[in-house]
Every structure is written in structure tokens, then in C-alpha cells.
Amino acid sequence: MSAIPISVQASSHLGASAPDYLSGLNPEQLKAVTTVTGPVLVLAGAGTGKTRVLTTRIAHILKLGLARPSEILCVTFTNKAAREMRERAERLIGPAATGLYNLGTFHSIAAQILRRHAELVGLKSTFTILDDDDQVRLLKQIIEGRRIDTKRFPPKTLAHFIDQWKNKGLLPDQVAKLNDEGADFAFGKGAEIYAEYQDRLRVLNACDFGDLLLHTLKIFTQYHEVLAQYHARFKYILVDEYQDTNVAQYLWLRILTNADRNLCCVGDDDQSIYGWRGAEVDNILKFERDYPGAEVIRLERNYRSTKHILAAAAGLIKANSARLGKTLWTEDQAGKKVLVQGIWDSAAEAQWVSEDVEKQKKAGRAYQDMAVLVRASFQMRAFEERFLMLQIPYVVIGGPRFFERAEIRDAIAYLRLIQSPDDDLAFERIINVPKRGIGDATVQKLLMQARVAGQSVMAAVRDLIDTDELPTRARTPLTAFVRDYDRWRELAKTIKHDMLLDTVLTDAGYYDMHRADKVSGQSRLDNLKEMVNSMADFEDLMAYLEHVSLVMELERDAGANSVKIMTLHGAKGLEFPVVYLPGWEEGIFPSQRSMDESGLRGLEEERRLAYVGITRAREEARISFVANRQVYGRWTSQLPSRFIDEMPIEHVEAVSQTGYAQAGWTSQESRWDRAGYQPNYTKREEPKAFGGNLSGVDMSRLEPKPHRPSAPAKPQPSKGLTVGTRVFHVKFGYGEVKETEGNKLIVRFETGDKKVMDSFVEKA
DNA sequence: GTCGGACTTATTTTT
DNA sequence: TAAGTCCGAC
Asked: What is the pLDDT, as a whole number, of residue A18?
């Protein structure tokens, strides 16, 4: 744990020249970078230079010659984080960064390891990685095979339980002893079906995401010589976002940490927002217990936000109990107080935000300096509608991802089947897409035959088309398909994989199928084109398929010069000068469901989410809540979120004209009243000076008025705003945006197959 | 194989 | 409310 003595002034290791990569670090950061031996926990608050510390640490280890690039294991959660890390490391150490083979996500590194030792867990090294769609379909087969009603016991639900178990590192036999909700699935058959699912995966030579970690974990536990090999290889381990690790990842890291214990975990317990998918805040809380003698370094100097923003966020997070505790500080100016605005209903809320966006724009801010962060995606719609009317360019970040689109999945299934004829799930997906007259009954028959004969479906088809067991009506198209398939396999040996896909999709009539589709065919064809283009960047089909199963994303138009609309979860790791935080109402945020399902733990996670939201702001955070909100078509009366009261009032500004009163509350006791703000609807005594925090105000005394419809908001022509020639490429409901005709941009939105609106935007 | 009506179900989402 | 799924009718 001892810091290797190195200072900016003098270093015997680094020759005469000062290590300039260390210059500009503050004392804590320097310590986090240079304490390279022994376990280290870096508690890095929001905006304290976490990534910089990690990358500089890598550089430092390399410059001191303590390890070669390939001997550093550096794990992240997302591909984006891994990419950013690599880029920044490259800037520090130059081309040597290419040698950082073990910098990547937990899953990609685990997959690499598993490919090398697959046979130890009964797989071949060419195993396929299933996406959750495949996973669900496989489970459906198993459940139906057991004659269990898939309506009462949906495969999706079990898939969710299995994921949770795998997150916790639980294997089927361990689940059997468990008495949880999932084990009760289908009258206590949960564990049994889980076991069967694992067996099927082995037969299919496949694994799901959780298996990547669990299988490697099993190998490390059972084969000491393999573990020893990795202990020798991974001399230094670095972990990003440690607060997001689940139990399986935690165990994985523990076992990979060798006797030298050169493990450095960086994280922030206050930003743990993924509990619902298995993250254990506990992992970071108990780090010191797990690694006795660990050095704990706190990064508390914030380089992002103003004083008011930090103080408001700090007051909020203070209400959480289980924390390691940090006090962020900044040398930045006080700045503006966090604004809190009560509003009548959600349409008015969107109006308020968009007017403010225009005001900011006129005052010289760029659109990309602003972001709207919502709790749940259904809240996005109101903002999209309003932004459209006002012609404010925006981009929705998140939403259905490229590789989750049906057409892309189909194309991948074709490729997967060509790559490995045994891929039954891929076969099933495309055998009748486009329609070849091979119906459900035939497919079931094929599956059955394959199962009985213990062979793959493709092999079963080859056998069956030579017999009389199938009606001619099914045999003819199947024969044709096999013939095509064999041709594609041959073709794959000679032509490049991107050309291969193009040919296959043409031959199979897949393009034609979408060309015939007037509604969304064109956008699907566009997506396929994009896919073919993207394939060129990969060496071969194998490499491409590995990429799509693990990376599952494609660089999308980042939407320069546009307001970002995203969920709070999606905003983690980002920052914006101005952040809008709408929908701070009890039940919405904090989410009722969170609180119902996980009680206090759920509430605390919601609070961390609020904390993440506020700390995204560099200069301005603007919170709003409404009195009336439509939830699933019903009007509901809302109460302001408790989080509002938890922010210290001296760092918060409420707009007097439009505080609770305007939002529709009738209370005489709202905190704004007591803070001296004059509601505009009632006479009251001299405002009293208010001192101190207002948490503890009895919120039950606030009574929202029942909803009365407000006058529909008129679309307002954009005043003096220029919309550039930017191509709008956004999501709206379930439709897509088309574009351009002459000097006009036509933005067409479709919901399902109903056209909703056309919007015309003059090109500037 | 396709269409339409009934029925169900509404967080957060990465790998 | 509104979108997705399922099932029966043609």
C-alpha cells in the first residue's frame, strides 16, 4: 500500500525530465495515481477526474516499468467507457496503448478468456453468445416442452430471474435450495428449468452474457493451473465504476487478484444506480474489509459544477444512510442556485422547458449545452412534441438500439447460420423470413426430429428432405433453402464478409421483402445498408460476430448542435452546462415501483439517481414538478418529490409566481410560503424570515387541486431561431423521421402505422 | 399467411 | 392512452 515515492519535482525512475503526465494533478489524484502497490480504493465523486486518474495510473505503471501493457487488466462496464479509456491512455503513452489487450468490459475480457479454455466447461471455443431475444426463445421452448402455460409463466420473467441468479453467481443447484420468488416459478420448477436451460446451452454450444463470467469463474475455481497463469499475467488490476459490480463480477475480481494484491478500484457509492440489475453497493462499502490494509483515497475536488449545484446535491445525498461519505468542494464560483419550478401539468412543463431552451439559445448558449434528463422514457414524449413545434433540434439518446432492430437481428442470424450450421436459434429465426412457405408445424417437426436424433436442425433438415416424411409443400422450399445455404457457405470462403451479407440478403429475397413494405421498409433497408458498411471495418466474419454480440452498438450520429433528451441512467458520466430535471413528483421520482419493490433501499437508489442528475450540471440545474400528470391516460394529482425538500433552501431558488401555488396546490404551509415567497392567490401575513433546512415539512398537508383541463397550448412559431440544414434523425414514439424535399425539411412522424404529423422546416 | 379485434400491460438497461 | 401480443376467422 505504500506509495512509491515519486513527486513532480524529482524522480529517479524517470530520468532528469519531470514526468509531465503527472503535472496538473491535485494531491489526492497524485496519490491515487502513484500508490501502485497493494489494494487501493479510490472514491471518486462526481466530476473529480476519475477517468484521468485511471488512465494516468496506467501510464505511471508503464513508465515505471512495473508491467508491460498486456500485464494490466483494466475493466469497465460499457464499451463506451473502455473506448474512452483507451483513447485517453493513448494520448498519454502513445502507441504503447495498443498493447493494452486486457482493457475492456467485464464481458469482453471474460469472453476472450473463455474462448481459450472453453473445453473445460464443456463448450467449443467457437461458442456463440446469445442475445436476450435468443435466450427468451430458448426458454420458451423449454417451458412449452414441459407443457407449462407460457402465459401464466412467461419465459421473459424466468429469463429475468435467471439473469438475477447469474448476477449473484448462483448455479442451478444453489438456486434449488433457495426459496426466492424465481425458484417458485411454475410451481417451484424455476431451478429445474434453469438447469435444463444450462444443459440446452451446452448442447447448442452457446452461452448467455451471465455465463461469460460464471464459466470463467468456474474455470478459475476448479483449475488452479489456469488461475495461476492469469495471476502471473495480470500484475495490475484496475476497475472502473466499482460501485456497479454485481456479485459475480465481485467474485471474478477477487479470484483474479493475485498475492501481490495490486488492485485498484475506482468508484462512487453515491452514484450507484444499477441495483435493479444486480449491482451491489455493498461491494464498495466493504472493500476495506475484503482487502485488509487497503488504502482508501477520496477525490473530493470537483472540477465540474458551481458551489450552489454541489451544495444542493450534497444536501440531498446526505439523506442516505449507507454511504462512505465524501464532501465535494470546488473553487468554482457560487453560480446560480438550483431552480425549482412548480407547473400546472406536463404539457406546460414541456412548454416551460422549451421556452427556457430558446431563451438560453438567444443568450448565446448552444443547443448541445442543454439536456433534459427524465426518470422514465414515457416522459420524453411531451418534450419531443414541444421541441418539434418550436423547431428546436433535439436528439433522444437511448431507446431501441441498432442491433436490436428486427432486420439487423435477421441479418445477423443469416450470418451466424453461415458461420456455424449448428446454430439452431439462428436457423429458427430465419428459416421462414422472408416467407418460404415453411410454417410453424414444419419447424416444430424439424426441431423434434433434431432433438430425437441428437443433431442440429440443419442436419435434421438434410436428412428429412431425402425421405417422404415431409409433405412436398414443405419439402420443396426446404430443399431450395439447403441448396442456397450450401452456395452461401461456399461463397463465404471466397468473398469478403460484407459482400457476402449483401449477396445473401439479395438471394434470400430479404431485401425484396422490405422493399415491398411501404411503411417502414425504406428505413429498414437503410439500416441494413449501414450494417453492410460497418462490416468492412472487421477482419472477418468471426470478428464481426464477436463484435455484435458483445458490443451491440454502432456509432450513431452524436447529434451535434441539438438538445439531448435522455433518461437519468443514460446521463451517467456526462455533463452539460444546463440540465433540466422535470417530473420531480412523488411516485414518479422517486418511482413508486422502486419504493414498493425495494423499500428504503429502493428510495436511496432513487435519491442517488437524483444526485447523479443534479451533478450533471456545470452551471444551471432546473428542476420542475407538476400538479397534474397523465399516467397511462388517467389524470393524476401529483405531490412534489421529497427530494425537493431535501435540498438546502439556501442553494435553491423557487420562482415566486409559479411555485407550488401556480402548480395547483392550496396549502398555506408549503416551504415556499415559509421561505417568504408570496403565493399569488392568497393574502397572507408578513413573510417571516426563514432559517434552516425545511426537510420535515409535512407534505401530507399539501393538497393538489384536481385537474381541470388547461387551454391547449398553441404551437408557437419559432422566433428568430434558425434551424440549420441538419438532418433530423430522432425517434418519436415508435415512428421515424424522414427528411428533405427541395429547400424544405419534411419531418414525418408515425406512430405504429398511423401518420401523426408532418412538420416543415425551412432550410437555413 | 394475413388481418383485425380482444386483451394485457405499462421504470431504469449494459453486456 | 397506446402499443404489443395473441388468437380466431378467412
From this structure: 54
Contact A413, A130 (CB under 8 A): no
The nucleotide closest to A155 (CA, C1' atoms): C5
Q: Nucleotides of chain C within 7 Å of a protein C-beta?
A: 1-4, 6-7
Instruction: Spell out where A583-730 has E strands.
Output: 617-631, 634-637, 652-654
Q: Is the CB of A734 under 7 A from strand C?
A: yes
Q: How far apart are the first and last CA of chain A?
A: 60
Instruction: Please give the pLDDT value at position A556.
Output: 57
* Chain B bases having any atom below 7 Å from a protein CB: 1-2, 10-15
**How far from the centroid of its chain's Cα atoms is residue A182's Cα?**
24
Q: How far is the CA of A590 from the C1' of C5 (A)?
A: 30
Residues 601-640 of A with CB under 7 A from strand C: 632-633
What residue is closest to C5 (Cα–C1')?
A151
Interatomic CA–C1' length for residue A524 and nucleotide C4, angstroms: 20
Consult the annotation and say whether A50 binds a ligand. Answer: yes
| Whether the Cβ atoms of residue A693 and residue A674 lie closer than 8 Å to each other | no
Q: What is the pLDDT of residue A665?
A: 57
Per-residue pLDDT, A364: 93
> Distances from the Cα of A303 to the Cαs of A27, A44, A306, A538, in angstroms?
14, 12, 9, 38
Rounded CA separation A608/A526 (Å): 40
Q: What is the pLDDT of residues A184-204, one digit of tens each?
A: 777 777 888 899 999 989 988
SS (H, E, C) A366-419: CHHHEEEEECCHHHHHHHHHHHHHHCCCEEECCCCCHHHCHHHHHHHHHHHHHH
Task: Look at phi and psi of residue A748 and say left if phi exceeds 0, alpha if psi is from -120 to 50, else beta.
Answer: beta
- Whether a cis peptide bond, with omega within 30° of 0, leads into A471 is no
CA A201, A204, A209, A213 torsion-angle sign: positive
Per the annotation, does A67 bind a ligand? no
A378 CB neighbours strand C below 7 A: no
Q: Does residue A151 reach within 7 angstroms of strand C, measured from its CB?
A: yes
Helices and strands per DSSP (H, E), number in chain A: 30, 20
Sheet of strand A295-299, all strands in order from the earlier edge strand to the far edge: A103-105, A72-76, A236-239, A263-267, A40-44, A295-299
Q: What is the pLDDT of residue A442?
A: 80
Closest CA to A183 of A163, A168, A166, A162: A162
Indicate left, alpha or beta for A696 from its phi (over 0: left) and psi (-120 to 50: alpha). Answer: left
Helix axis angle, A247-256 relative to A155-167, nearest 10°?
A: 30
Nucleotide in closest CA–C1' contact with A432: B1
Determine whether the distance from the CB of A632 to the nearest atom of strand B is below 7 Å.
yes
Regions of chain A with pLDDT less than 50: 1-16, 656-659, 667-764
Count CB neighbours of A120 within 10 A.
15
Which residues of A belong to the active site? 50-51, 240-241, 271, 616
Is A45 annotated as a binding-site member? yes
Which cell numbers in the block locate residue A601? 433501499
Beta bridge partners of A463: none
Residue numbers 140-179 of A with CB closer than 7 A to any atom of strand B: 163
pTM, rounded to two decimals: 0.83
Question: Residues of A from 567 to 606 whose C-beta is within 7 A of strand B: which are they?
Answer: 567, 569-570, 591, 593-594, 597, 602, 606
Written in H, E and C, the secondary structure of A570-617 is HHCCCCEEEEEECCCECECCCEHHHHHHHHHHHHHHHHHHHHHHHCCE
